[in-house]
Amino acid sequence: MLFKKLILITSISTKVLVAFLVIVLTTSIARAESSVWKIEKDNLTTYLGGTIHILRPSDYPLPLEFEQAYKVSKILAFEVDTNQLKSPGIATHLFKMLYYDDERTIGSEVSPATYQQLENYANSFDLSLDFMKKAKPAMLMSAFMLSELKKIGINHQGIDQFYLTRSLQDKKQIEFLETAEQQINFLADMGVGNEDIFYQNMLRDLKNTQQLFAEMIKYWRSGESVKLDSLVNQPMKKESAKIYQSLLVDRNNNWIPKIKKYLQTSETEFVLVGAAHLIGEDGIVNQLKKQGFKVTKL
Q1: Are residues 179 and 117 in contact, defined by beta-carbon separation less than 8 angstroms?
Q2: Residues of the chain falling short of pLDDT 50
Q3: What's residue 22's pLDDT?
Q4: Residue 3's pLDDT is what?
Q5: Cβ neighbours of residue 190 closer than 8 Å, sequence gap 6 or more
Q6: Are 9 and 188 a contacting pair, CB within 8 Å?
Q7: Is 49:35 a contact under the CB 8 Å cutoff?
Q8: Measuring CA to CA, which residue among 153, 151, 158, 126 is closest to residue 2?
């Protein structure tokens, strides 16, 4: 299954890798403080749920607040149609955007030493680097990250897919904030032109995947949004301001008008987006608060 999103970065750091985990993956943690917000204005309600798109089997059943919001919502809004990501047309677009379309290969863009490290890493997971030789950095990184996550048991469907399937079965109205093509386009140039440094940093930080994921889960479980923001968003803002702007701020700004429109209708909606989009100074929750909406956690 295609990664729904990768961070657009040219030099990935340890902290940015945490952001990658939060934004690209989905984990559901036993309830402590809620990860679902209730947004209200003029007696109209919309719910926001923070997701992160792959789960462990042990993470089910999901926290009660997700089910509470789902049951009272007529409309479910997701970032992207995850079923569409499996279509032949999207696979063609993915190949076009995430693979070199000229004479370039992984080997032509990195030093022999880096290539050997990549090959050794791929072999450790029974992956063939030669088979992926035309992959751009985002594609290779996704393959390696999936392998690392699978090793620590993160390999099950996430909240988005879970509720998309439920919504189809329950015949609820379904909407999407972005297209699959848009999400793939976010990844296209990540690390391109700076492959050697990108891969060196990627290989260094992949070794810390389990530790970083555990720390992320710790803050998620305790409901400490400020600490999660400090772990995820603030380091990315400091170290990769351009990426922070394009990955989080710009997309948040694109989504907020759509969410505000939901708050002008009598129907109740449940909007599910990546956790990093909701928290922090530039997060959707804070932006709605500043615009006069009443915001509470379930």
Answers
A1: no
A2: 1-16, 18-19, 25-32
A3: 52
A4: 32
A5: 6, 7, 8, 9, 10, 136, 137, 138, 141, 198
A6: no
A7: yes
A8: 158
